[in-house]
Design goal:
Mean pLDDT: 91
Number of domains: 1
Structural class: alpha+beta
Transmembrane segments: 48-69
Largest sheet: 2 strands, antiparallel
Low-confidence stretches: none
Shape: elongated
Keywords: Membrane, Transmembrane, Transmembrane helix
Protein name: DUF3185 family protein
Length: 72
Amino acid sequence: MRAVLIIIGIILVAAGIWIILGNGSYQQTDTLLQVGTAKITATHDKAIPAWVGIAGIVVGGVLAIGGFLRKS
């Protein structure tokens, strides 16, 4: 259990740093026009908000420190 906490914590910290550096994004597809079965869509790349990266760093740090301090 101790090793699992440390590994998950390190992964969350790394993902948080990756998001903070501006590399995290997702795609959102919007329907612009639909007539019958014909449809016009637009896909936009949106950045993941910085607060998600900060939360990942904080939670990951707490998990990693908790794993290091936990006694077997």
